[in-house]
Amino acid sequence: MDAIVVFASARRDGNTGKFIDWIANELEIEIIDLSEMNISPYDYEHKNLDDDFIPLMNRLLNYKKIIFATPVYWYAVSAQMKIFIDRTSDFLDVEELKNIGRRLRGKTACIVCTSISSEADHSFLNSFKDTFEYLGMNYGGHVHANCEHGYRPNDYKEDVNKFLQAVKSLDVETAV
Ligand SMILES: Cc1cc2nc3c(=O)[nH]c(=O)nc-3n(C[C@H](O)[C@H](O)[C@H](O)COP(=O)(O)O)c2cc1C
């Protein structure tokens, strides 16, 4: 499977961690936990270019599909995921990094998320989708787990199976 997961939650073994472990296990793909990396917030002066962000991006660029896994916190992504997304601006600003940014084009981005709502929040999904579009990435779909009553894998089986099929299929545009 030509895919990798970028995961970011305030806890590794929480709802999103369990959900993405299941999915990554099925797909037999690696999970990168942003909380284990040293990635500092966006800096207009780019004094942070020697942190883990560029090496991480170079690693991600080896894959055609990138799965972003995060809980919904206040209608948005987790703080660590937001920092990661903000840092993609480095590719737009720093001349010698522009080539890395261009290599994101044509890759497929998918979302795995959890919240305590019946559906993934629209603002959350839209800000992700708009970001992917801006970066020239294709959107491959999302899967959401409603954890209002705790993490209940049986409730998500059907959605997860659809998502797995979509990610596995070449025609990722048909993803859920
Ligand atoms: C800071 C914070 C903000 C949250 N905001 C939302 C929200 O806007 N909408 C929602 O449905 N759930 C919200 N939740 C609930 C989480 O999305 C939900 O419990 C999720 O499964 C937690 O995943 P985790 O265990 O990986 O942190 C919030 C939880 C926290 C801790």
Could you explain the architecture of this structure?
This protein has 7 helices and 5 strands. It has 176 residues and is α/β, with parallel strands linked by helices. It has a single domain (3-174), classed as 3-Layer(aba) Sandwich (Rossmann fold), CATH 3.40.50.360. It has a 5-stranded parallel β-sheet, sandwiched between helices. Strand 4, helix 6 and strand 5 (138-146) form a beta-alpha-beta unit. The chain is globular. It starts with a strand and ends in an 8-residue tail after the last helix. Mean pLDDT is 95; it is low at 172-176. Bound molecules: flavin mononucleotide. The site of flavin mononucleotide has 18 residues, from helix 1 and strand 4.
Helix/strand/pairing category: alpha/beta
Largest sheet composition: 5 strands, parallel
Q: How large is the radius of gyration?
A: 16 Å
Any idea how many domains?
A: 1
Strand content: 15-25%
Count of helical stretches: 7
Indicate the CATH class: Alpha Beta
- Ligand inventory: flavin mononucleotide
Note poorly predicted spans.
Answer: 172-176
Mean pLDDT: 95
Number of strands: 5
